[in-house]
Write a structure and sequence with these properties.
Radius of gyration: 21 Å
Strand order of the largest sheet: 1-26-25-24-23
Helix content: under 10%
Oligomer: single chain
CATH topology of the largest domain: Neuraminidase
Number of domains: 2
Shape: globular
CATH architecture of the largest domain: 6 Propeller
Number of helices: 5
Length: 430
């Protein structure tokens, strides 16, 4: 389909690549240029290979490597690109169990491009659309399932980042500019969920997930306390120590509503339907928390600790994913048994995590911010075992399951939106 701004085969990393300092760039890509065909094809024999064998054609002709994100020339994307070959060469199977959720006769598709730093995809079941944020451009976009078109949804979005939908179909969003969590009611009224903790303004809520008990869990790193993603602190604040930046320039309401100076550590919170806000994981447990996700049974919570944020005086985030047991109910809920779920190291490459979502089998799909060949989505089972990789030509911030059957994985990757049909479904609304 002919989408606005659609282009072919570009590889841009955008602002998110450097700003979170996720990349351990030294000595990385010796193994990037060669991927064993057997690993890629273990879950399904290429249809053209089977046809060639039956026709008596030479095996070499049947097994020529198709273009991929790491080939020369690289794979092309968009409406003018050649047809895709099945199975997709950029879906890398590490463990055979990954084949359970894959469709051999489908490929990764680029739905739209033309953004700056895309984030926070979330599926509206009521509206049959995917909403996603462009944090830098201060807009929300909508991908309409029925028409296949992408259009501006909210402008300005107040530098919205993470999005989700609750169990009543209401959109939840974080707004970096106003440093708060909001909910769009079904009549389109805006409700402020949280903008402070004990009277101190939040940093810049990033990602959020609903719980069946009506609570909303969200992370609060400082990534939005910048000119590009919200507004910096007032003079002397952690993100404006020399006072040269004017946080109110062009947006006085942002400073007025969202607070002027970072005052809190980077915590993870649980908002209760009563209106109470509680810390469930403080900065000492998960520094610079970013992506957040429940397991399908809501007994495990995953939190991503990303890179050092603006204004951090300590070491900052660790670029790993933690898992916790969720114990108790209501405001008595606690996180226990903290452990490292994954260090996000694959073949010696640190695949810096950002956002994630789970499927109904408990598999975790994590955005990967790193070098070409490992940028995209990394997939783990519920034990942390690496199942496979979905390679993209751009670093991937976040993912969501969507479509009427919730069996399409949508991926916001720097400037573009991608999708892949799977044999599984998302485990939670939005």
């Amino acid at each position: 389909m002919d989408m606005p701004g659609e282009t072919e085969g570009t590889n841009h990393h955008g602002g998110g690549f450097s700003r979170r300092r996720l990349i351990k760039a030294g000595a990385i890509v010796a193994g990037v240029t060669t991927i064993a065909p057997a690993a890629t094809l273990a879950w399904m024999e290429l249809p053209q290979l089977a046809l060639a064998k039956s026709a008596g054609q030479p095996e070499a002709a049947a097994t020529a490597s198709p273009p991929s994100v790491i080939s020369t020339p690289p794979r092309k994307w968009g409406p003018n690109a050649p047809p895709e070959i099945y199975p997709d060469p950029d879906i890398i199977v590490i463990d055979p169990s990954f084949g359970k959720v894959l469709i051999g006769i489908d490929a990764i598709h680029r739905v739209w491009t033309g953004g700056d730093w895309l984030e926070g995809p979330a599926w509206s079941e009521k509206g049959s659309y995917l909403v996603f944020s462009d944090v830098h451009l201060n807009k929300q976009f909508k991908y309409d399932w029925n028409t296949g078109q992408v259009s501006v949804f909210r402008d300005p979005s107040q530098n919205s980042n993470g999005n989700s939908f609750d169990f009543q179909g209401r959109q939840l969003s974080t707004q970096d500019n106003f440093r708060r969590v909001i909910r769009w009611e079904n009549d389109n009224r805006l409700t402020v969920i949280a903008d402070n903790y004990n009277g101190k303004p939040l940093n810049s809520p990033n990602d959020l997930v609903p719980h069946p008990d009506g609570s909303i869990w969200f992370t609060d790193p400082p990534y939005g306390d910048t000119l590009s993603e919200g507004h910096p602190d007032a003079a002397g604040g952690p993100t404006n120590p020399d006072g040269l930046l004017n946080p109110a320039l062009g947006d006085p309401e942002g400073v007025k509503i969202g607070g002027q100076t970072r005052q809190l550590p980077t915590n993870t919170y649980r908002w209760d339907p009563s209106g109470a806000l509680d810390i469930v994981a403080d900065e000492s447990m998960v520094p610079d928390p970013n992506g957040i996700c429940f397991s399908p049974d809501y007994k495990t919570l995953y939190i991503i600790s990303t890179g050092k944020g603006p204004g951090d005086t300590g070491p900052g985030g660790q670029g790993i994913i933690f898992a916790f047991d969720v114990v108790g109910t209501g405001r008595g809920t606690q996180l226990q048994n903290q452990r490292v779920f994954t260090d996000m190291m694959v073949d010696g490459v640190h695949c810096g995590p950002d956002g994630m979502r789970a499927d109904v089998y408990g598999n975790l799909y994590c955005g990967s911010n790193t070098v070409l060949g490992y940028a995209g989505v990394i997939v783990f089972d519920s034990t942390g075992k690496l199942l496979g990789r979905i390679r993209l030509p751009e670093v991937c911030a976040n993912v969501a399951f969507g479509g009427p059957k919730r069996n399409f994985l949508f991926m916001t990757a720097s400037q573009s939106l991608y999708r892949l049909q799977l044999q599984t479904q998302g485990a939670a609304p939005g």
